[in-house]
Amino acid sequence: MNELWPPPSREVADAIRSLCQRLLTETDALVDTFARPSLVAQKDPALLADASLVEEDWELNRSDLVQWLTANVQQPGRRVEPYVGPRAMAYINDLVSRGIAPDFAGAWRVALGIGWRRWLEECVARCADRDLLVGVLDVTAQSMVQYALDSVAALRQAGLTAAVGNADAEGIALIQLIASGAPMAEDLAERRLRYRMARWHTGLVLWIDDPQQVDALDEATLAVRSAATGRTALVARASATSRWIWLSGAGAVPDLHHVEQVMATADGVRVAVGRPGHGLQGFRTSHQDALAAQALVIRLGSDRRFTAYADVELIDALTKDRAGARRFVINTLGSLAEADTALREALLTYVQCGFNATRAAAHLYAHRNTVERRVSRANELSAVKVEDNPAHVAAALLVLDIVPDIVATNPS
Fold it and tell me: Which residues span the membrane (predicted)?
């Protein structure tokens, strides 16, 4: 690459080399300071929603940092050529195939700002001589800014290369549109994907943490698809480390025992499963559930191999955001969510009092018969019956008690 500024003096070069050697010992901690802010700066909801892609973005940031530090150990203060390795190229291919176009320039702008401040602190702490400090900062500022510009250009070129050579891009981009909530005619989706939508669907996300185990991921995907007796399967390569699967059939309750069996023997492969849903909307919501379960497992650092969203929805809803909590309340309470407040209050108090109507009546200053009548009516309206899952019912009622307008279409 053409050099755009004079080489540093020997003294400045030695200082830069020493600084970079030290920072190479704490690269993960450095990446953690700017990875999330730069990810948000890319302004793509589909990227933020997929935990596997988030992980790959973190790895890309780490690769970029190590490349600059290593190059400055070898040739301090010189222009650094970006390196788009096989893993980074696979990540770019995944983004292109799903129609995701991150703002890499915006991401680099944020990362560079945070990284420069950390570099400045290190330089000030290690360079006691004023002239040496000025020399180091002068040359490294040029090197960092040019590296950012060259890297953005390299990522854009990689994206163009991926767009030209990706045969599956059209189908996966369509799936991405459906999954993100874009309006889509059911018959159009069926024709383009050659997959029936007017059925019950269960969305699954299979993923690995180690890219070296991709063979195990593909074997597990094939096993899940092959063992789905009586059901049609749609498989999409979502990223280098994850696969999206939809299993469809006439019944609403699929038998996923075979999936658990596959995961028990698939080394390093994990799966998240959404709740069944019908039609195009069910295709979308079951997939969103599976993504949410995957994100929860990764967020909480769990090592579970099989996670059904129905089993962790309570944890997810109460540790994430308002939209998730709203869905949890509606799915759990059904019509009860918008029924008379007295009914909900009676049912919640009844559960909190250990299913003792007498104690509940005392707490509510009401007659026992009145409380029993309200509890019975509330349980009739609730989608999930209190005897089947009292924890979910109580949690949903508590959310409504804290945020009464959460189920409103346009809460004020």
Answer: none
Of 375, 380, 379, 383, the C-alpha closest to 359 is: 375
CA 361 centroid distance within chain:
45
Q: Quick one: tokens of 44?
A: 């793509």
Two tokens at 104?
């890499």
CA 157 distance to own-chain centroid: 26
Q: Which residue has the tokens 């994206």?
A: 159
User: Would you say 349 and 359 are in contact if contact means Cβ atoms under 8 Å apart?
Assistant: no
User: For 240-287, how does the pLDDT look when each residue is reduced to its tens digit (9 = 90+)?
Assistant: 899 998 998 877 677 788 888 889 888 899 999 999 999 999 999 999
Residue of 167, 181, 411, 143 whose CA lies nearest to 284: 181
CB count within 10 Å of CB 124 equals 12
φ, ψ of residue 46 to 5 degrees: the values are -65, -35
Domains (range + CATH), the chain: 10-165 (1.10.490), 195-314 (3.30.70.270), 328-402 (1.10.10.2840)
Distance, CA of 240 to CA of 242 (rounded, Å) = 6
CB 164 within 8 A of CB 96: no
Q: Measured between alpha carbons, how far is 201 from 182 in angstroms, rounded to an integer?
A: 18
Residue tagged 């070296």 (tokens): 212
**Residue 205: beta bridge partners?**
244, 272
Which has the minimum average pLDDT: 12-16, 291-295, 309-313? Answer: 309-313
Strand ranges for 50-180 from DSSP E: none
User: What digits encode the pLDDT tens for the residues 322-377?
Assistant: 777 788 889 999 999 999 999 999 999 999 999 999 999 999 999 999 999 999 99
379-389: per-residue pLDDT in tens? 999 999 999 99
16 sits in the region (left: phi over 0; alpha: psi -120 to 50; else beta) called alpha
